[in-house]
Amino acid sequence: MSTVMVVTPIIIANWPVISAAVAGAVGSMGFTLAEAAAGVDVRVSSKNATRTEIELDDSEILSAGTELGEEMTVVRDGVTARFKRDARGSLTLCMEGEGYTKAELHQIGEELMGRVTQQYVYHRVMTEMKNKNMTIVSEEVDTDQTVHIRVKNW
Amino acid sequence: MANEELEIQISKDGKVTIRTIGIKGARCLDAAEMLALIVGKEEQRELTSEYYEQDQSQSQHLGIHQKYQ
Fold it and tell me: Which of A68, A87, B4, B8 has its CA at a distance of 20 to 30 angstroms from the CA of residue A14?
């Protein structure tokens, strides 16, 4: 072993890449895409629902020049999580749920945002490794959801 | 060369830890830095024994050189 480096991810991507990361990540936390969740009308907000918002500072969602479609909603047990590109171009998550405290919703939201970031980073790393003709020696996922990848040949 | 590897760990919040295995000297930094650039911004770096093995020999060489200047 000769170097250990810790890196904080920065997300710079267009909306299709982000939505693919959201779709790939949320399932591991039991969330379902709103379109796929039968009988759930995410357009209706309850008056009693608690709301909170999380913004991912280290993110820049490249705009396609249209506001259409730059939003994605997932649901689980009365919690609605809406990923969107905010006015400044950052990835933002709006959490809403009935019977939850703001702190609980915030915690769920932080975890969701983490999984989406993990998914994005995973694809970024794997794509670059393949572009550089590096060989993936092994790939494992821990019980704590940490992904381990070993590569060689550069 | 055959045993040179990069171990990449992506935690559930997306934080990445890159560890070089079997790469001696400053060359190990090239491999890790390349990956760090792809992912985001470097927060922390630790150089362990294999890096310093070569670094020490370079320091010794410099020391002798400076002695005769």
Answer: B8
The SS3 assignment for B42 reads: strand
C-beta separation of B49 from B23 below 8 A? no
Out of B10, B40, B41, the one facing A122 most closely (by C-beta) is B10
**pTM confidence score:** 0.83
On whether any CB of chain B is under 8 Å from the CB of A125, the answer is: yes
Q: Return d(Cα B44, Cα A42) in angstroms, integer.
A: 42
Distance from CA of B65 to the nearest CA of A (A): 27
Q: Do A152 and B4 touch (CB under 8 A)?
A: yes
pLDDT digits 0-9 by tens, A86-117: 888 899 999 999 999 999 999 999 999 999 99
Classify the C-alpha dihedral A30-A63-B37-A8 as positive or negative.
negative
Q: Decide: helix, strand or coil at residue B10.
A: strand
